[in-house]
Write a structure and sequence with these properties.
The structure holds two protein chains of two kinds.
Chain A lengths: L16 H28 L1 E5 L9 E5 L3 H7 L2 H32 L7 H9 L6 H12 L5 H8 L12 H26 L4 H8 L4 H29 L3 H6 L12 H11 L3 H30 L5
Chain B lengths: L1 H11 L6 H29 L4 H6 L9 H10 L4 H33 L5 H10 L5 H14 L6 H5 L6 H14 L2 H9 L4 H12 L1 H17 L2 H6 L8 H12 L6 H21 L8 H5 L3
Helix pairs in contact in B: 1-2, 2-15, 4-15, 5-9, 5-12, 6-9, 9-12, 10-11, 14-15
The chains are: A mainly alpha, B mainly alpha.
């Protein structure tokens, strides 16, 4: 900090102060973001080499293997199957969750809605429920015997195994939709509330219906926010882990490698193959990075686009 | 899913005719959404009152008579480890969110109110952290913390969750709008040091943003599963999420544990739901749009 700069420096060059203020964040970033990323990249290029019978000192050596782990990861049929499952699951979650979030936000923003505060709080409530607890709640609701959902279904004559091979993806997507719709609704709703009401009055005077106002004025206004929430949701779905892990004990239709992230976990901590885990993790990251540049662009243009 | 899909077409077809008629459809759709979101919570409230025998035999929507027995069983489970999980969760989330808020606030202030070489780079790096999948970080974080002898300790769960890209982003946006440059300049002319300035002028002005950052990070840590699941081996250090998961994994083959898991899930919801309801006005995602009106 340099409080005694000569008075000539009118627009203060900042001196050391901003660097000191940023130091804690940068140290944490170096230790818990940059270093782990570097270490993952390093591990992904290595593998244990066993010589002889693999017994005794020096029989196991870590060697540099180039991109061999990536070749294995990309050639792994189970991993691709995992991507496909997550793709289907993710598409379902994104469309339904964000569609409902937008619908609820638009409805909350219309003129004559009763119980709006109650509905808003109730729909936001699942945000406060941890993913594990949400999966447990729904997991029990999917179980025959304890579940009113199954009671109702069988009363209607439909015997559906909600955790069966054909339905488990939908059941899992429902958990994610339930947990995420409220938060996304709130983001979109707050964006809508910031719009001056006169816009809508003018449109009404011109004879526009509420639906037309919603579709032609409000939706375009919240489009940047929708893009933002979409990117965040994509990143979250690519990494889906908690829901399948928690539902797994309740059914035998979810394998230990159901999602790519579950395979990373299994490789790293169950089968002890850190190197494959690292390579797979980098592949998952690469897929997110493609999205990340788009995201940064959106954030910068939107929040800091005022010519800095 | 079925319920969710059923609501979707309703709004599209809502007829925009007379104002009064228009109000019914949106209200109904929103109430359906509220019902969908409250339903599992209401169910667990009922299910937690059922005794072991009642859980699988009585009607699923009728309360039972076993709540007190369930609570007693839960308290006795592995010598009361459940309460320890609760305490651990409060510790991780409380201390972690506090540190996170402090770091976010000073970072956001520096990024918003100073011009210095490397500012853009620092912001992009810190914000870019939001895009790095947790898995790319969690596994090597575990390995590196193991080397430092910290894996399995409270630190291993606390430290990696202090840096919050979203918190820094919010703090920067808020500081840019809420702290007038003229005020800082005046204080500097009066001879205030940068440290005093930050502590006595800037940070107090950022208080509303700090409350919001604290809440978001508190919830993020409270609900986190992957990191503590990877870091911790000793169930005496588990947070609630990992504890409930291990309980389910152990109880999958013995439905006698289901009562405990259901009761435990209910109890684990209470603190966060209470925080959520009492602090509702601070749940703002519009710190930028709400205040950047010049």
């Amino acid at each position: 900090m340099s409080p005694h700069r000569p008075a000539g420096a009118r627009t203060r060059r900042a001196g050391a102060a901003p660097y000191l203020f940023l130091a804690p964040a940068m140290v944490l970033f170096a230790l818990f973001t940059a270093l782990p990323i570097g270490y993952t990249a390093y591990l992904s290029l290595r593998r244990t080499k066993v010589s002889g019978l693999g017994l005794g000192k020096g029989a196991r050596k870590e060697v540099f293997v180039g991109l061999a782990n990536y070749a294995t990861a990309l050639g792994d049929g189970e991993l691709w199957a995992g991507w496909l499952r997550v793709l289907g699951y993710g598409a379902l979650v994104l469309v339904v969750m964000l569609g409902l979030a937008l619908l609820f936000a638009l409805l909350l923003d219309t003129l004559h809605v009763r119980f709006a505060r109650f509905s808003r709080a109730a729909i936001f409530l699942p945000y406060a429920v941890p993913g594990v607890a949400a999966s447990l709640l729904w997991g029990f609701l999917y179980l025959p015997g304890v579940s009113p959902v199954n009671d109702a279904l069988s009363a209607l004559g439909a015997r559906v195994d909600l955790l069966g091979a054909g339905t488990v993806t939908f059941s899992m997507a429902n958990v994610a939709v339930w947990g995420g719709v409220g938060f996304n609704m709130l983001v979109l709703y707050t964006t809508l509330r910031a719009v001056p009401r006169e816009y809508y009055e003018a449109a009404r005077i011109d004879g526009a219906s509420e639906t037309q106002i919603a579709l032609r004025i409000k939706v375009p206004i919240v489009t940047p926010a929708i893009i933002l929430t979409t990117v965040f949701s994509i990143i979250a779905t690519v990494q889906v882990f908690t829901e399948p892990m928690t539902l797994r004990p309740l059914t035998n239709t979810i394998s230990t490698t159901w999602s790519p992230l579950m395979k990373v976990y299994r490789d790293a901590f169950v089968t002890g193959d850190l190197y494959s885990a690292a390579a797979t993790a980098v592949v998952i990251a690469a897929i997110s990075v493609v999205l990340s540049f788009g995201f940064l662009r959106v954030v910068r243009d939107r929040a800091f686009g005022e010519g800095r | 899913m079925t319920r969710a899909n059923a609501t979707a077409p309703a709004a599209g077809t809502a007829r925009p005719g007379r104002r009064r008629a228009y109000g019914a459809a949106p209200t109904a759709v929103l109430l359906l959404g509220a019902l969908y979101c409250l339903f599992p919570v209401a169910w667990v409230l009922v299910a937690a009152t059922k005794s072991r025998a009642e859980l699988f035999t009585t009607s699923t929507l009728l309360p039972g008579t076993g709540l007190l027995a369930n609570l007693a069983d839960l308290a006795a489970y592995r010598d009361g480890v459940f309460w320890l999980w609760m305490l651990n969760t409060v510790l991780y989330a409380g201390v972690g969110a506090l540190l996170s808020t402090a770091v976010s606030a000073v970072s956001g202030y520096a990024l918003a109110k100073f011009r210095f070489p490397g500012r853009g780079l620092a912001f992009n790096l810190l914000l870019g952290g939001v895009l790095v999948p947790a898995v790319v970080l969690a596994v090597p974080q575990y390995l590196l913390l193991s080397k430092a002898g910290l894996a399995g300790t409270y630190w291993s769960v606390l430290l990696p969750q202090i840096l919050s890209p979203y918190g820094i982003y919010l703090a920067r946006v808020y500081a840019a709008a809420a702290i007038p440059d003229a005020l800082l300049e005046a204080a500097r002319i009066d001879g205030a040091t940068e440290g005093r300035l930050a502590l006595n002028v800037a940070l107090p002005l950022m208080l509303p943003a700090m409350v919001t950052i604290f809440l978001f990070q508190f919830v993020a840590i409270w609900t986190n599963f992957l990191l503590p699941f990877i870091m911790l081996g000793d169930d005496h250090r588990f947070p609630m999420t990992v504890g409930l998961y291990t309980m389910l994994a152990a109880g999958a083959n013995q439905p006698s544990l289901y009562n405990l898991i259901i009761t435990g899930t209910l109890l684990s919801l209470i603190p966060l739901v209470a925080l959520f309801l009492t602090m509702q006005r601070y749940w703002r995602t519009d710190l930028s749009s709400g205040s950047v009106k010049n």
